[in-house]
Backbone:
């Protein structure tokens, strides 16, 4: 869980900083493009309105120390014959090609990326006045700036990743320490409670076996025995949670007894096991299990998770309805769904259904449901420890469905 939290912190931080960096550099690139475009437009406009010998320039003229953005104007007849042009030299083949492109276009301006030429045209008494600007240096400058910005973003993101990863490790240290302390406390406390609870249960059983105990006293002993039994179940649940937490934190292979498990057989056994329970609760179980699905898992823990889902479904199913257990393998993952027909759950309850000690039906007592609100939390812990996922959906039309992906 903590590793997942660390990864989320890194992803969110890098996404936010990366977005700011991309927006900043992108804005600068767009600004440069707009400035260059405005300068090109100004040169084209001058080429249309001035004399043919008028030669507008961007910045200084070419004196051997830098590029000169050339502008050429030409008067062209309707059939493409050049009547007159300014004195700037341009390759005749290129000029013929660009004039043909201009005359065939339905627009009054355009840009030929292959030739690095921008053009604008205006009709006059002889046919067309065409203004042409060489944008080779403009295009090259924008391309260089784009490449530079991309390199800056990639280098900055790489450096940021290293910094954020180290920073996240430092931030997570106190959280890790607190998490480990809490986990050890739950595990140690649960172990320490098992012995006195075993003694209490043994003593109450001895007293219950004594036929000379008065009826009034026997009622108190039975109450003590029941509560001790519930407490034992709670302690065992807490120990299971501690083990699943350890499996998620330290790696499943170190804690879970991983082996090849026939998931199809396991789910089928669990469904059959609850047939009688479902009948007593006024519903039935219908299973649709694809054969031969095998996974690497801790059979005992995974069986507990499946039993929890089936038990939960039969417990809350509307009387006279069917609980559907379905196992498929549509791709590389096995998908288990357990559905029951019941009133739709409140969205707030659905959001917290896997939280520890959370009870969706607060009107029911523990005696009615027989649990502490840990069943689904344990189920999720087991699934997470196996590298899988579990989710719940509840609607009035389809009832409540739990989906496990392994």
Residues:
């Amino acid at each position: 869980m903590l590793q997942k939290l660390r990864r989320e912190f890194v992803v969110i931080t890098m996404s936010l900083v990366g977005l700011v960096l991309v927006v900043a550099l992108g804005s600068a690139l767009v600004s440069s493009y707009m400035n260059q475009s405005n300068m090109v437009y100004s040169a084209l406009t001058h080429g249309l309105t001035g004399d043919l010998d008028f030669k507008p320039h961007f910045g200084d003229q070419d004196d051997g120390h830098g590029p000169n953005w050339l502008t050429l104007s030409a008067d062209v007849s309707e059939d493409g014959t050049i009547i007159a042009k300014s004195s700037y030299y341009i390759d005749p083949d290129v000029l013929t090609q660009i004039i043909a492109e201009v005359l065939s276009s339905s627009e009054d301006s355009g840009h030929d990326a292959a030739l690095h030429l921008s053009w604008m045209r205006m009709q006059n008494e002889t046919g067309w006045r065409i203004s042409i600007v060489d944008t080779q240096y403009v295009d090259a400058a924008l391309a260089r700036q784009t490449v530079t910005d991309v390199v800056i973003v990639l280098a900055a993101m790489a450096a940021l990743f290293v910094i954020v990863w180290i920073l996240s490790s430092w931030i997570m240290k106190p959280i890790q320490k607190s998490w480990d302390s809490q986990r050890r406390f739950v595990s140690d406390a649960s172990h320490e409670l098992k012995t006195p609870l075993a003694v209490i249960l043994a003593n109450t059983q001895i007293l219950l076996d004594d036929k000379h105990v008065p009826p009034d006293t026997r009622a108190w002993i039975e109450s003590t025995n029941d509560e001790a039994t519930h407490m034992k179940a709670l302690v065992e649940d807490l120990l299971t949670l501690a083990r699943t937490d350890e499996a998620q934190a330290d790696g499943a292979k170190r804690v879970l007894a991983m082996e090849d498990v026939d998931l199809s057989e396991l789910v089928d056994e669990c469904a059959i096991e609850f047939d009688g329970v479902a009948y007593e609760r006024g519903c039935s179980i219908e299973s649709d299990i694809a054969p031969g699905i095998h996974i690497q898992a801790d059979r005992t823990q995974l069986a507990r998770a499946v039993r929890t889902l089936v038990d939960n479904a039969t417990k809350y199913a509307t009387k006279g309805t069917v609980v559907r257990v379905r196992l498929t393998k549509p791709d590389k993952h096995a998908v288990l769904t357990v559905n029951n027909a019941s009133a739709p759950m409140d969205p707030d309850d659905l959001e917290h259904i896997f939280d520890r000690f959370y009870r969706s039906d607060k009107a029911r007592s523990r005696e009615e449901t027989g649990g502490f609100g840990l069943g689904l939390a344990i189920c999720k812990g087991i699934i997470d420890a196996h590298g899988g996922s579990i989710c719940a959906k509840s609607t009035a039309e389809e009832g409540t469905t739990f989906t496990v992906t392994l």
Q: What stands out?
A: The chain has three domains: 2-141, 174-253, 255-405. The longest helix spans residues 136-209.
